[in-house]
Amino acid sequence: MTTTSLTTAAAPAISALGLRKSYGDKIVLDGIDLTIPEGTIFALLGPNGAGKTTTVQILSTLIDADGGSGQVAGHDLAQRPEGVRAAIGVTGQFAAVDNLLTAEENLFLMADLRHLPRPEGRRRAAELLRRFDLAEAARKPVSTLSGGMRRKLDLAMTLVGDPKVIFLDEPTTGLDPRSRRTMWEIIRELVADNGVTIFLTTQYLEEADQLADRIAVLDRGRLVAEGTSDELKRLIPGGHIRLVFASPAELDAAARHFGAAARDPEELTLRVPSDGGIPALRAVLDVLDAAGVRAESLTVHTPDLDDVFLTLTGHGTPDTTTEMTR
């Protein structure tokens, strides 16, 4: 059985149906549906004001939805909010740590708020300091720590209660590239080693591309697309298969069989429009084989998430979600 089939078969860690939220006349969420399997990383993308943080706030019971329903870790948002809160951890856009306390004291405080027995709280704090490479900074005031260390401490505090679901609302905002990649490794390890489910909001498209099993694009309060990174990229025009030939004669011979292809005589290349999928690739190879033409090399080019984001969140955004199945 493949990893994908296992992921698809897993019970939902988060589900939502028709979530709505308005502030006065402003509609922030306009009926969104979500199904996120256990042990996966889900990324929610969208421009500022799209409703990403509001979605996290509703699913983490910080605010109530105006309409719709949802469950997190098997608990209904409206009927069992205390069960949801006991099963989740939340890390916001900015590190929610006390600058006057040491790193260790921040973790002790969180353990006390979680009502852990004192020995268990101390043990958990020491374990997390080691895990996040913060042991040497344990007794230093948080105000003296770097931005990357503060974000790691913030995530460590989220893990004190051993949550099943973690909401990360733009967790790497303000971090330098090295610290951001360190955080990515930590997030991957949380899923691989602990089996937690990560709900990630981010404006860093590379972050979603690197981390997420599945990505949704939110715009003006509505989900306009959802799928894997590769599936989303195939939604956008501009994908092509680039063929390189050894001679102008072979290029000419191939071009006769691909009417919509763009040719470059200097580079001896042919660009055949394609969605990047296996059927399209197989079709190109079949045409070449039937024509008796041999390409020196073949590469598949698809739009990146930047293209997806700009296309789907610009003017003319589709009114309905484009749902891709795995």
Short key terms for the protein model shown above:
326 residues; alpha/beta; Alpha-Beta Plaits; seven-stranded mixed sheet; elongated; disordered N terminus
Give an overview of the whole structure.
- With 326 residues, this protein is of the alpha/beta class.
- The protein has two domains: 3-233, P-loop containing nucleotide triphosphate hydrolases (Rossmann fold); 240-301, Alpha-Beta Plaits (2-Layer Sandwich), CATH 3.30.70.
- Helix content is 37%, strand content 26%.
- The protein has twelve helices and 15 strands.
- The strands form three sheets. Strands 6-7-8-3-9-10-15 form a seven-stranded mixed sheet, sandwiched between helices. A four-stranded antiparallel sheet has the order 2-1-4-5.
- Mean pLDDT is 88; it is low at 1-8 and 315-326.
Q: Return Rg in Å.
A: 24 Å
| Residue runs with pLDDT of under 50 for 5 or more positions | 1-8, 315-326
Query: Any idea of the CATH class of the largest domain?
Result: Alpha Beta
The general outline is elongated
Q: Going across the biggest sheet, name each strand in turn.
A: 6-7-8-3-9-10-15
Number of strand segments: 15
The N- to C-terminal Cα distance equals: 14 Å
Q: How large is the share of residues in beta strands?
A: 25-35%
The CATH homology group name of the largest domain: P-loop containing nucleotide triphosphate hydrolases
Tally of alpha and pi helices: 12
**Helix-and-strand structural type:** alpha/beta
Number of domains: 2
Gross CATH architecture of the largest domain: 3-Layer(aba) Sandwich
**Major β-sheet, in short?**
7 strands, mixed
Average pLDDT reading: 88
- Helix % is 25-40%
Compressed to H and E, one letter per element, the order equals HEEEHEEHEHHHEHEHEEHEHEEHEHE
CATH topology of the largest domain: Rossmann fold
